[in-house]
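Help: read this over?
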Amino acid sequence: MSSLNCNGDGTCIKECYCECFNEDTNKYDENCKCGHRHHNGFCYSICCFPIRCRNYKFCNEKVPKWILDSYNGMSANCAIQLGRHEITDIINNCPVCLEDTKMIILKCKHMVCNDCWYQICNKDCFYENTDEIYIPLCPLCRNKNNWTC
């Protein structure tokens, strides 16, 4: 897609499969096959660039704007991990970290800050037994907070 046809939402950014991880050294090679050097799965276009996920300080992902618009400002990986929630501009005392910060509303209607919710969702999601499926629980009522109704 040329920049003349671009509407600014990042649909002109091409997804690529980064094959530059060197398993012998456990490091990324200097250049990806596509040459973008960012190792994040997207080759830049002339007019648009990937944008930081809302959880960038944790996930280190940059994605096209249309993906952020689809998933509450997050990458698809973060959206799946964090389950259903609503972002707000409400500043309140987080019941987990006790900081005054912007809250998110979980499926059960309890509020926590985004950073704490990310940490809760990330903490136990990697099991040795791959048959288990991790579903994050609200830190207040312990209800499941996944993508189901």
